[in-house]
Amino acid sequence: MRSRTPDRLCAEAVDVARAAAEEAARPGKVGDHVEVVADGDRVVTHYFLCEDPGYRGWRWAVTVARASRAKNVTLDETVLLPGSDALLAPEWVPWSERLRPGDMGPGDLLPTDAEDLRLEPGLSGEEEPPPNSAVSKEMAELVEAEDADVTAGPPSSLSTAPRRGSIAALAEELGMRRARVLSRYGLHTAADRWDESHGSKTPMAQAAPASCVSCGFLVPIGGSLGQAFGVCANEFAPADGHVVSLSYGCGGHSEAAVMPRPPRPAPPVIDETRVDVLPLREDETADAASEDDLGHS
Length: 297
Known about the structure:
By secondary structure, the protein is an alpha+beta fold. The chain is built from eight helices and nine strands. It has helices at about 10, 15-25, 95-100, 135-150, 165-175, 185-195, 205, 280-295; strands at about 30-40, 45-50, 60-65, 75-80, 120, 180, 220, 230, 245.
């Protein structure tokens, strides 16, 4: 094992290393010499403090070397390296993880990952049913028979195959003729997101006279999400044009004007607004009665 003791001539070349660091740095930004580290045989790195305020804790590292049996020290490289207490940039996060709702602008493109859990394969338009399709051979023959009943002439005389009842036509009618469709996970995450912004637990819904399920401004949507959500079409409502939960509500309900008023409390048993004049002493009442009997004024 060769010794890692710094080469004497390379270790003494502090001025050469400082001159290289000052050439790479801005004037006056190279600080004191802090240490010498042996990187190999006749290869030494000199470290200098960096006085630049933007690089707190960083150090200039200048590596010098010397050839075998040579007396001249040559410069190898000059770099700025972080120290143990250096101010570093945050760890890099991919753009797909940094993106938040509302960050996209006009002209921006957001490629979807091929393994996105929110999507699953759909029907791209192939007439052949997929291997796991529920369409049987008997069902396909029945579709051909129905097409023959509603088209003029035998199927062999048609220039193109009838479109009604085909796999592609059925998929298009159901909204599935796409390369990928929402998965169950994608449906659940969308429902949770919509319910958080326009759901029954929001302050607006808590103070509403009724829920959206009975509002005339609610536009139903199709699919399984239509069982719990719709679109608000009230231009004066805070959720106009947004997907709202059926349990959401606001003051713009279509029937807010005819909603039953809250019951009024029953009238009080004791009328506290009437004032009864009462004598202060009982003898005053007796004297007043005797004077009336005697006819005194």
